Each structure stands twice: as C-alpha cells, then as structure tokens.
C-alpha cells in the first residue's frame, strides 16, 4: 500500500481532467436539457488548435512561452466550433422532439472526427504534442510530471472563476434563471438565446483547457481522443449530478480516483484477484456510478431533476 | 421548398452512386477479345488509416512495388497484375466486409494482408469458402495456421487457403525471453497485454518461456488499447520492482505506456513484439523510448543482400511513407501470389483456367512456392507458415543523431521447446 499517495495523485489528476470536460456537458444540459455528445470532439479540436499554434511558432520556442498562445488558440478553435454547433446544428431543432438534437449530436461528433481526420495534416495517426521536459516534481510520498502542474493550477482556477461568474455577475444570474425556467426568464427580459450560446462557449473553453492538459500529460493528440474522454466526462457529469457545475468537478475526481484505485487495489481484495487491474477499472467505475445513482438518483451534488428531464 | 430540395438531393445521390458503380464494373469484352493479356488483380487489406496506418501503408506500398516490378519484368507472360487496396481500419468487422468484397471481384486471384491477427481471423473463413488464397505479411498469432489447440501439440491447420510470410508469436515471444534472461540477465518481468488476439497471445508465449527459463513474473496487467492514461498501471509497475516490462500490444498503446512507466520513475526497458517495431513508436514515446526493445520477424532488411534491391526500388518509386516493419514481408507475400499465378499459367499452356478453377489451382500451387525473397528464402510448411524462422531484436538507441531501432541480435530460434 506504500504507493497509495501516488495512486491518489494519479486518480486526482485524471479526475481533474474529466471534470474540466464534464463542465461542458453539465452546463449545456442544465440550460437546454441537451446531452451534447459532440462535446468530446470540441475537446479534441482544442487539442489540435493548441498543436497548430505551437507548430506555427518558430521552432525552438520554449513551451512555457508558447503556452499562453496555445491556450488562446485552443480556446478560440473550440469556442468557434462549439458555438457554431449550437447555431447550425442544435438551434434549428430546438423545440422539436427531444431525440432529434441528441441524434444530431452523435452525427456531429462523427462528422467532426472525420473532418479532422481528413483535413488536418497527418492526423490520420497520432500527432505528437510538446511536453515539458525535466525531472518529475517530487513531493516525498508521490511525484508528478511537470506538465501536470498546468492541470493542477488550471482546474481549480477555472472552477473558481466559473463559480464566481455564475453567482456574482448579471449574466451568470441570467444563466441560473434560464436554467430554472426558460419561459419565465424570457418574460423577465433575458435573452435566452444569448445565454445558451454562452453556456456552449464556456463549456468549449473549458474543454480546450482540458485538451491542452491532456496533450501535455500524454504527449499526443489524435482525432479519436474525444470519444473515450467525452464518454468518461459525461459519466462524471452524471455521477456528480448533471446540471451542477461543482458536481461535474466532484464527479470527475471521484471517477478518476475510482479508476486508479480499481486498477491498483481491487485485486488485493480476497476473492477478487481476477477482477482487478487495468482491464476491469472501467467496470468498477461504472459499478460505482450505478451504486451512486441507486442511492442518489440526482447524482452526488444533483439538484432536483424533477419536472423537465 | 423542402420537398424539392429533398428531391434534388436524392437525385444527386442516385446519380453519384450510378456513376461510381459504372466506374467499378469493368468492360470484360475488351480483354477477352484481344487474347494477349489477362488481368489478374491482387487484393490487399491493411489498416491504411488510423493509428496503425504507418505499418499498413508500408505494406500497401511494398505490395504495389511488387506488382509494378512483375509488370515491368513481364514476370508472367500474358498476365498483367493490378493491385486493389482496401482499408480495414484495424477492425475485424471491416476486414470481413473487405474479404467479402474481394471474393466478389472475379478478377481477384489472391489477397495480401491483413496486418492484425484478429482481422486475419475474421477473414480466413470467407476466403476459404471461395478458395481464394491469402498471404499475410504480418499476422503472428499461432492459432491462425495451427489451430486453437496449437499449444497442446494438437496442431491442425484450420484453413488451407491461409499462408503467411511472417513467423509466429510461438517463437517470437520465447526468442525475446531467451535474450532478456540469458544475455541481458534480467530476471524479473512485469507482463502487460491489451487483451487482443495478438497482444495477449504474444504476452502468453513470452511469459511461459520466461518462467521455464527460471525468470519470475512479478506482476501482470491488462490495459484497454484505446486508453491513453496508464498512470495507475505505471505506478504498479514501479512498486513491483521489476527489471523490465513485456508489453504484448501495438505501438499506439505501447509507446505511451512505456513512456508513462519511465515517467513514473521505473527506469526499466519495455520489451515487446513486432507491433512495437515502428518509427512511430519512437516518435510517440520520444526520449523515453531509449533502451526499449522490440522483436521482429526476419533479419534486419539492411543486412540482407536480397533486400537491397527492394530498398532501392522502394526509394525509386518515391513512396511518401516508409516501408516500415512489414514492407519486406508484404513484398514477398505479393511475390508469392505472383509466383503461384505463374505456376498455374505455365501448367495450363499459358492461360489461367476459367472461373473458380483458377483460384483453386492458385491456392494449391502456393503450397509449393519457393523463391529467394526480400526477407530470405520464402516457402511454406504444411500449416501455411513460413519456413523462414529468422527473428531479430532491436533496441532503441541513438544512431546518426536520432533515436531509432538498432538491430542488436538476429538469428533462428530453436531452443527452449
């Protein structure tokens, strides 16, 4: 068990990544009750945006210097795609049958994957992503990669900023109002279309930050990376209570921890020797999800799901 | 308005489909009338896109080179070869669809491919039912030629249409085990596989031989090949105090896994099979690839005289992608089909037999094909396996200023049994 702190750190980092992506699912769902399955691809496009920015800079530029530009470019790419998806794929279907936008989301997800696959240079296979070099940062009981610092700083900063935005600003309160009752919000003079666009944009920006963290952590981006990451992030959003932004982060962290704990320790439980390890981690993560949903159908921090879902 | 645009769309799609199918159907009249040349199509199936496309495109280009060479030298009189390539995206279901498609094309007389063992498995029966010969340059799972019970000395060839020019994991895994145990003197291994036909099979044969030699397996893990986060597994490897890792998987998962193990603080080499033997592996794992070892079938092409012509020819054609790990085998596989066609044509007074008989006779002829190929002497035993049992090991080292796979050992595997 002496590697427990390290495994907790692994799980926490992975979970923070899931959480950042999950914000996008949860915000969009909270406001328009749409599960935006193309969100994983918006995440992926952020990664390619950052890579493009890095390649565009002269060779030899230090990664630390390039990072702000990469963030900017990734966010711009993701937000453009996210907002574009809202405008052209989802808005025309708003008010239609509930399944139509869902299927559109799945179709859009495939289309975006194929677009990158076909048109981004050399993207039919994994593209390498720049990494911070240098020894790991040692904290005694555990250590982390230098690149993970980005994730470790970005995730809480983004969360706090979003929390402040939603609770303190006019737009944030308008967002809450729209999420609670869009019709009444409209009567109160809130431009709900604008709020919806904002939700998509914020979700996409967070996904772009997550994509950079993902690239720095694993050293590569590829056109398929949004699928698994998106699925996990969606799970995290449900686990934490879909519609709740803090729930998304908590759900992500719980899911990440569950995966690393399952990989490391399940096999030590008597009788479970053959159900442990990396092969079973997803199974255990979903067992956890089901247990949570059985006991708290609204998710860990979920609010009333009640009427409209 | 809506109806009209729908109508236009439907019309457009229909016209498009018709045009395409018109392109696809060949005008048979021209050829039979002329009486000089028959066209024989060689099918090719490999992952041409996706993570494994580096290997797949090397296979495709090399097969293309073989076809071009045969046409240029008029290898078979009165026969012109063509290559038709299909992409299986490394998925068994797509491979089977492609196999059906190739069987349906009456001009196809042999198929080169695929890359992945599980894809090969899905194609075998389709080809066997149509008597169409298949030569894989890269499938290494023993069960494909020797049946599911190959480990219990009950070898039985499941499909007589299936041949391969690569050797099997039954000797590839043990070969690496001997090298690591006897020459590197590393006694503790952590075995990880990706649960696929190839990866799990390879890891199994390695671990078994390693234990037989007296080595110790200090841990086993299984990963999902689509995952990128292996930090939890890497931490386990470090805690297990292994001397090295054996990774039965392909490079898209193997490279990040090896890198993350080293990043986690376990400075130990990752050893794997031929699916890690790709420049892409070094590219993805970057500096962390140093010291990792991959086994591959055959001798290093650079050292074989027979391979020099292949390499210069490949260069002359100016293919965009490298021939990679299986290029030489793909060339030899294609050449074997060409030779089988030649044998049948010669037996039948300069003509291919009519209809399904041609495929049947070519399959039968394949069994006795022998020639000096790119990778050495090419020939097949009673299971359809290659008689060339050469294997090599490559270590990632700095050479000519950059990290790459450098051959460290080459030979035939006999020992162990």
From TrEMBL, chain A:
CDD domains of this UniProt entry? Answer: TM_PBP1_LivH_like (cd06582)
Highest rank taxon of the organism:
Bacteria
The way this protein sits in the membrane is described as: Multi-pass membrane protein
- Any idea where this protein resides? Cell membrane
Offer an example of a GO molecular function term for this protein. L-phenylalanine transmembrane transporter activity
Q: Which InterPro entries match?
A: ABC_transp_permease, BCAA_transport_permease
Q: Which residues cross the membrane?
A: 12-32, 39-57, 63-85, 97-120, 149-166, 195-215, 246-266, 272-295
Which GO annotations describe the biological process of this protein?
D-alanine transmembrane transport; L-alanine transport; L-isoleucine import across plasma membrane
One GO cellular-component annotation of the UniProt record comes to:
plasma membrane
Q: Which UniProt keywords apply?
A: Amino-acid transport, Cell inner membrane, Cell membrane, Membrane, Transmembrane, Transmembrane helix, Transport
Pfam families per record: BPD_transp_2
Q: What does the sequence similarity comment in the record state about its family? A: Belongs to the binding-protein-dependent transport system permease family. LivHM subfamily.
Q: Name it.
A: Branched-chain amino acid ABC transporter permease
Lineage here is: Bacteria, Bacillati, Actinomycetota, Actinomycetes, Kitasatosporales
Automatic annotation (TrEMBL), chain B:
Q: Which SUPFAM superfamilies match?
A: Periplasmic binding protein-like I (SSF53822)
State the CDD domains in the record.
PBP1_ABC_LIVBP-like
| Assigned protein family | Belongs to the leucine-binding protein family.
The protein's matches in Pfam families, at most eight in alphabetical order, are given as: Peripla_BP_6
- Which UniProt keywords are present, listed alphabetically? Signal
Query: What species was this sequence derived from?
Result: Streptomyces coryli
Q: Which InterPro entries match?
A: Leu-bd (IPR028081), Peripla_BP_I (IPR028082)
Q: Where is the Leucine-binding protein domain?
A: 39-399
- What protein does this entry describe? Branched-chain amino acid ABC transporter substrate-binding protein
Is Signal among the key words of this record? Answer: yes
Asked if Signal is a keyword of the record, the answer is yes
Q: Which domain of life is it from?
A: Bacteria
What PANTHER family does UniProt report for this protein, alphabetically?
AMINO ACID BINDING PROTEIN, LEU/ILE/VAL-BINDING ABC TRANSPORTER SUBUNIT
């Amino acid at each position: 068990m002496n590697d427990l702190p390290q495994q907790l750190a692994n799980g926490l980092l992975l979970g923070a990544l899931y959480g950042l992506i999950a914000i996008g699912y949860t915000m969009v769902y909270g406001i328009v009750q749409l599960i935006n399955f193309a969100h994983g691809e918006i995440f992926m496009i952020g990664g390619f945006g950052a890579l493009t920015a890095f390649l565009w800079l002269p060779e030899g530029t230090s990664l630390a210097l390039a990072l702000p530009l990469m963030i900017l470019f990734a966010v711009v790419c993701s937000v453009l795609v996210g907002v574009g998806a809202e405008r052209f794929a989802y808005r025309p279907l708003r008010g239609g049958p509930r399944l139509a936008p869902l299927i559109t989301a799945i179709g859009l997800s495939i289309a975006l994957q194929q677009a990158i696959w076909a048109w981004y240079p050399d993207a039919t296979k994994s593209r390498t992503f720049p990494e911070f070099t240098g020894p790991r940062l040692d904290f005694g009981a555990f250590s982390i990669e230098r690149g993970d610092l980005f994730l470790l700083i970005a995730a809480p900063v983004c969360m706090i900023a979003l929390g402040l935005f939603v609770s303190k600003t006019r737009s944030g309160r308008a967002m809450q109002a729209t999420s609670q009752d869009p019709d009444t919000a409209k009567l109160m003079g809130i431009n709900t279309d604008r709020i919806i666009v904002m939700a998509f944009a914020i979700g996409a920006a967070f996904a772009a930050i997550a994509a950079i963290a993902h690239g720095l952590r694993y050293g590569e981006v590829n056109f398929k990376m949004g699928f698994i990451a998106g699925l996990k992030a969606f799970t995290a959003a449900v686990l934490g209570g879909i519609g709740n932004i803090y729930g998304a982060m908590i759900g992500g962290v719980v899911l990440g921890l569950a995966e690393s704990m399952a990989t490391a320790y399940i096999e030590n439980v008597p009788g479970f020797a053959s159900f442990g390890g990396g092969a079973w981690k997803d199974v255990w993560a979903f067992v956890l999800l089901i247990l949570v949903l059985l006991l708290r159908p609204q998710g860990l921090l979920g609010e009333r799901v009640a009427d409209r879902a | 308005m809506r109806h009209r645009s729908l109508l236009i769309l439907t019309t457009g799609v229909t016209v498009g489909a018709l045009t395409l199918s018109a392109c696809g159907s060949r005008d048979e009249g021209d050829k039979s009338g002329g009486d000089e040349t028959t066209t024989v199509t060689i099918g090719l199936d490999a992952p041409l896109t996706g993570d494994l496309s580096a290997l797949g495109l090397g296979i495709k280009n090399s097969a293309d080179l073989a076809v071009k060479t045969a046409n240029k030298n008029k290898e078979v009189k009165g026969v012109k070869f063509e290559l038709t390539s299909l992409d299986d995206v490394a998925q068994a279901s797509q491979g089977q669809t492609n196999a059906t498609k190739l069987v349906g094309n009456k001009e196809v007389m042999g198929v080169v491919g695929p890359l992945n063992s599980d894809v090969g498995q899905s194609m075998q029966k389709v080809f066997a039912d149509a008597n169409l010969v298949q030569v894989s340059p890269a499938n290494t799972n023993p069960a494909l030629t020797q049946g599911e019970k190959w480990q219990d000395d009950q070898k039985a060839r499941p499909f007589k249409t299936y041949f391969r020019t690569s050797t099997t994991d039954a000797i590839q895994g043990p070969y690496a085990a001997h090298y690591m145990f006897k020459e590197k003197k590393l006694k503790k291994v952590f075995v990880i596989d990706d649960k696929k036909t190839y990866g799990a099979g390879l890891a199994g044969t390695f671990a078994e031989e390693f234990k037989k030699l007296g080595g110790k397996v200090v841990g086993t893990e299984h990963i999902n090949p689509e995952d990128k986060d292996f930090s939890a597994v890497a931490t386990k490897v470090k805690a297990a105090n292994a001397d090295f890792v054996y990774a039965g998987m392909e490079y898209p998962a193997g490279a990040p896994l090896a890198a993350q193990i080293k990043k986690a603080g376990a400075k130990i080499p990752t050893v794997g099979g031929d699916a890690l033997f790709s420049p892409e592996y070094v590219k993805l794992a970057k500096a962390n690839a140093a010291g990792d070892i991959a086994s591959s079938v055959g001798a290093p092409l650079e050292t074989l005289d027979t391979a020099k012509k292949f390499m210069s020819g490949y260069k002359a054609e100016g293919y965009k992608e490298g021939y990679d790990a299986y290029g030489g085998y793909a060339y030899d596989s294609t050449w074997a089909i060409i030779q089988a066609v030649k044998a049948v044509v010669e037996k039948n007074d300069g003509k291919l037999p009519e209809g399904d008989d041609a495929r049947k006779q070519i399959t039968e002829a394949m069994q006795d094909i022998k020639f000096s190929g790119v990778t050495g002497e090419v020939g097949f035993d009673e299971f359809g396996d290659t008689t060339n049992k050469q294997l090599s090991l490559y270590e990632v080292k700095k050479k000519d200023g950059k990290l790459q796979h450098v051959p460290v050992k080459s030979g035939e595997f006999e020992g162990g049994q």
